[in-house]
Design brief:
The protein is of the alpha/beta class. 48% of the residues lie in helices and 13% in strands. It starts with a strand and ends in a 5-residue tail after the last helix.
């Protein structure tokens, strides 16, 4: 069987199927809505206590970053709009609390699930997790406890909530497999933090497996074998031993430079979303941050963050990373990433709409506050500013003009900042790639955002499963645009990085080395493996490979050529 590798590692062991008691919610007419609302409030209070306990446990066993999931769950419980709608339904329609909660939950979950952004789609799971917990309390149903298992097991479930994952005893849970979910699901993220192997998206696994079955799987490749023969078990035991050796070998690379066999040095940096993520950058020996997504400062709250709040967040990252480079992307909100407190227009094509730099140049009050915070924080570390969703030279000049205005204000106020701060743009729109020779005269660096560049180049909505097969990082058109951007950047003497998923793809790293990419920004856990790959490559040899690859006609041909001609096995 095949799924999506969500957390690396080899798992070998007995199966435990997680099947919760079926929750049957009846639609009942009630006579005392006040009493029903009181039942709901009491269930919420009990739920808050449970979630607080989960927060404390997760904080102790995994750290603040992972525990924050339960802070978000607590915020859902406190959400006056959400539970206000539930209470309104109870009062106006005289429904029982369980049914009213289900109706409102279904509406919200459907709204989030239909968003184009995978991160936002995964938030539907948070709402479902919290409201299911409240419903169980209302109905008096106990949930499965993974914190006190008697033996080592591999959990199989249709899905696992963050609550499920947080309770797992790492000594007893050897791994888990789910039928649904993706790499950005909270359960997958927490599995990687716990270093528990996991595979998601394995169809019908709960029907095919039984309690007590034996199973083996590879959390990197996503392969699963149910009730394997002895020789397969032996094969996976060997794989497991090799994986442990590999981790030890990669850890030996900490402190070393990311340099090819023929002496070409590149930077391996990390993508982060909050100051808490810096811990992972340091743990995995990242050489800095290539993409700090600042929009997370603006989300899960009911108002815009103040200048002071932003300054403290940026300053914290700068101080922790000292003189290492930190590329901070200005606010990329709009489209599928909405803020409840901003009245953004509903759009037919949100990815092509009022978002990112377009919003910031229109709402300069928001933009200026962020730029002041960024400039002030630049006095504490090696911060660089990056503008997203640029499509024209005019936008770059307008954004730089606003930045200069803020610099002048800070000078008058005698507030320190880095006068030589570097300013760059994300290259994620084909128009910018095609005109990159001219854009390179306007900025200090480029960072190629391949996630959107693939989408815009191939006219494929990456959130549309029906056509997802057309969204392909091996597309020769993408690689040609990447080459164009790198070449044009270098002609003007600026460095070129990449912060999309392609930057951490083991198959494409050799080609990117051949194309001359200077900086690779990726998930922190990919850094050491990428360093190993780079240290075992010759740039000169990869230049020849890259030249051949960009002249191939199809994505399939590109991937096949790499598989047959470049040895990237560790």
């Amino acid at each position: 069987m095949k799924g999506i590798g969500a957390s690396p590692g080899i798992a070998i062991g007995k199966v435990l199927i997680k099947k919760e008691p079926e929750i049957k919610i009846e639609k009942l007419a009630i006579s005392d809505s006040g009493q029903e609302i009181q039942r709901l409030k009491e269930a919420r209070e009990t739920c808050k206590e449970q979630i607080k306990n989960l927060y404390d446990r997760t904080l102790k066993t995994m750290g603040k970053k992972e525990a924050q999931i339960f802070e978000a769950h607590g915020m859902i419980l406190e959400d006056p709009e959400f539970f206000g709608q539930v209470e309104e339904k109870i009062s106006n329609e005289s429904f029982n609390a369980e049914y009213a909660l289900k109706e409102v939950t279904d509406t919200f979950v459907e709204l989030f699930k239909n968003m184009d952004n995978e991160y936002m789609r995964e938030r539907a799971a948070d709402i479902k997790d919290v409201t299911t917990r409240v419903t169980r309390i209302l109905l008096g149903i106990e949930s499965t406890d993974f914190s006190s298992l008697d033996e080592e097991i591999i959990i199989i479930a249709e899905d696992l909530t963050p609550s499920d994952t947080a309770q797992m005893d790492k000594e007893k849970v050897l791994g888990f497999i789910t039928e649904i979910g993706g790499k950005t699901a909270h359960s997958a993220i927490m599995a990687r933090t716990l270093e528990i192997p996991a595979v998601v998206g394995v169809e019908d696994i709960t029907e095919l497996a039984n309690n007590g079955d034996y199973i083996v799987f590879d959390g990197d490749e996503g392969t699963v074998v149910l009730n394997p023969e002895d020789d397969v078990i032996e094969e996976y035991k060997n794989k497991q031993a090799e994986y442990i050796k590999l981790k030890n070998r990669l850890n030996e690379l900490k402190g070393e430079k990311s340099i090819t066999k023929d002496g070409v040095e590149v930077e391996l940096v990390a993508n982060i979303g909050t100051p808490r993520d810096v811990k992972g950058v340091i743990k995995n020996d990242g050489e800095g941050v290539g993409l700090y997504r600042t929009e997370f400062l603006y989300m899960d709250r009911d108002r815009l963050p103040t200048e002071e709040e932003q300054f403290e967040a940026y300053k914290k990252v700068a101080e922790k990373l000292k003189d290492k480079p930190i590329v901070i992307r200005t606010l990329d909100i709009g489209g599928d990433k909405e803020l409840s407190y901003l009245d953004l227009p509903k759009e037919m094509n949100p990815f092509l709409g009022y978002r990112a730099i377009r919003l910031c140049l229109d709402r300069t009050d928001i933009f200026k506050t962020q730029l002041r915070a960024l400039l002030r924080a630049s006095a504490y570390g090696n911060i660089k500013i990056m503008f997203p969703m640029i499509s024209s030279i005019e936008e770059v000049r307008q954004a730089k003009a606003v930045l200069e205005e803020i610099k002048e204000d800070l000078r008058k106020e005698n507030i320190k900042f880095n006068e030589e701060i570097e300013v760059g743009i994300m290259v994620e729109i084909p128009a910018v790639a095609v005109m990159s020779d001219l854009f390179a005269k306007e900025v200090d660096f480029f960072s190629i955002g391949t996630n959107d560049l693939i989408q815009y180049t191939t006219a494929v909505d990456r959130g549309n499963r029906k056509i997802s097969y057309l969204y392909n990082q091996f597309h020769p058109a993408l690689l040609r645009l990447v080459k164009m951007v790198i070449d044009n950047g270098h002609k003007e003497g600026i460095w070129v990085g990449m912060c999309g998923e392609v930057a951490g793809d083991p198959k494409l790293i050799p080609i990117l080395i051949g194309l001359g990419l200077d900086e690779f920004s990726m998930s922190p856990i990919s850094i050491l493996k990428s360093r190993w790959i780079i240290k075992n490559l010759s740039k000169k040899e990869m230049e020849e490979m890259a030249e051949k690859v960009i002249n191939l006609p199809t994505a399939e041909d590109v991937e096949k050529f790499i598989d047959e001609n470049i040895d990237i096995e560790i």
